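ok trying again, last paste got cut off:
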Amino acid sequence: MIECDRVLENAVVRLAPICEDDFVPLKEIAYDPEIWRWTVNRIETDEGLRAYIADAVAARKKGTHFTYTICDVRTGRIAGVSALGNHSAKDRRIEIGWTWLAPDFWGGPTNRAAKSLLLTLGFETLDQERIEFKTDVLNVRARAALRNLGATEEGVLRSHTLMHDSRRRNTVYYSILRPEWTEIKAGLLG
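nice, full thing came through this time. structure:
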C-alpha cells in the first residue's frame, strides 16, 4: 500500500486529497456535459457528485486510489480533479488519470502543472519505475497534452471500455519511464 495524503503545490496549482468539503466548489463545475464527453463515467446530479466524492475518500482510506482536487493558486478556484491509481507494487508502476477540468481551464497551464506534481510524486517519492496514462483514442486534446508532457504513445486497446453512452471505447496507452524522467522534468520546469 502507498501513502499519498500530502498536499502538493507549485506556482500554478495546489493538489489536495479530495474530501467532502469539496462538494460545493466541485458542484460549480461538475455538471458541464463537455467535461464527460470522453470519460467512462458521468456526473450529472448532486447525488452522483456526493457518491463520487464518497467513493474517492473510501478508496484513499483503503490505499487503492488517490483523488486530488486541483485548485488554481492564482484565483483560488477549484479547477477539477486528477488521481493516481492502478498501482502495482511488484512492478513499481502506477497510473495518473481520471482527470476532469472545468472547460475554462482547458488549454492553459493547469493540467500540465497538476501532472507535473503527480509525476514528481510518482517518481521521486513513491519510487515508481513506470507511470502510465490512458485516454479515449478519439480524445485529441488529451492525446496532445500527454505527448506535450513527454509521454510515449504505446498502443491502442481495441473495444477496451464501455462508455456511459454505450459506445465501446478504443483506449490508447502512454507512459513515462524512470530513465526518461530527468529530461522530461527539466522540460516541464523550463
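cool. The chain has a mean pLDDT of 95. The two ends are 33 Å apart (CA to CA).
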